Amino acid sequence: MSPLFPLILLHITVAAAQLRPGHYSKTCPGAELVVRDVMKKALIREPRSLASVMRFQFHDCFVNGCDASMLLDDTTTMLGEKLSLSNINSLRSYEVVDEAKEALEKVCPGVVSCADIIIMASRDAVALTGGPNWEVKLGRLDSLTASQEASDNIMPSPRANASLLIDLFGKFNLSVKDLVALSGSHSIGQGRCFSIMFRLYNQSGTGRPDPALEPKFREKLNKLCPLNVDQNVTGDLDATPFVFDNQYFKDLVAGRGFLNSDQTLFTFPQTRKFVKQFSINQSEFFEAFVEGMIKMGDLQWEQPGEIRRNCRVANSHSVNTF
């Protein structure tokens, strides 16, 4: 972890008082319906895209707060976050947010921020795949810039263990329970062979597989990800990758976690109790997940902002800048 990490976090604040449900009730009353309609179409077109979009909230809010900085394309003077270590060849489906923004600009031009679209779309990705639905707080502004360095310094690796993750989440005032519940976002979607090769062939530099892997599951992963594999090949993060449920936690208990950062939640004492709890009681998982998503959505960075017209590019002037 970079020594810059604690300094970066000094500027993170919880700005819940500035955010509220129904923020667009007068200025763009159909905003949430527009976003959900786009997400429904994305589900039909490519079910996996919902998991991809849902993860945007994590990759956005943890880096300088929830400000849509991760959506900005690189410029001649700025290295954005799309090519950061945690995002390159990993984050995808940016076009879904583009579609939502385009639809909103037709009905309410210059009103709905890209940062709020991420929050709405993440909630919809969960609800449309069988998970809980909840009321989101809105009113965020979009950043004027992005930082690849900040993303590299903050976002955890798939190799991360529970102890590192507890420390990371704690710096954002997210509890151990929040960490485990939010890790349940891996209830849907897929991960790359790149992220698990060391688990299969050289865990902790031993030249051997991770002993926490259940043998038959390890055989399955060996077939999916042989040593000579294209490491962008993907595998399911749990046994029901298109349904948001508590199967993810059942898989961890059985030693079938895809990522090291997932399986370590069961092998580490501080997090194991929550994994067991959520594997038994799906309702408790859903409740904790919603609480964690709302808390994460409250993270804000004290900086100027605007309502972007295009989520990939900062506006060329500052009419909507505050």
TrEMBL record:
Domain Plant heme peroxidase family profile, first and last residues per copy: 18-315
Catalytic-site annotation from UniProt: H59 (proton acceptor)
Gene Ontology biological process terms in this record: hydrogen peroxide catabolic process; response to oxidative stress
A Pfam family this chain is assigned to: peroxidase
Cofactor note: Binds 2 calcium ions per subunit.
Residues of the signal peptide: 1-17
Domain of life: Eukaryota
Catalysed reaction equations from the record: 2 a phenolic donor + H2O2 = 2 a phenolic radical donor + 2 H2O
Protein name (record): Peroxidase
Organism: Prunus dulcis
Lineage per the UniProt record: Eukaryota, Viridiplantae, Streptophyta, Embryophyta, Tracheophyta
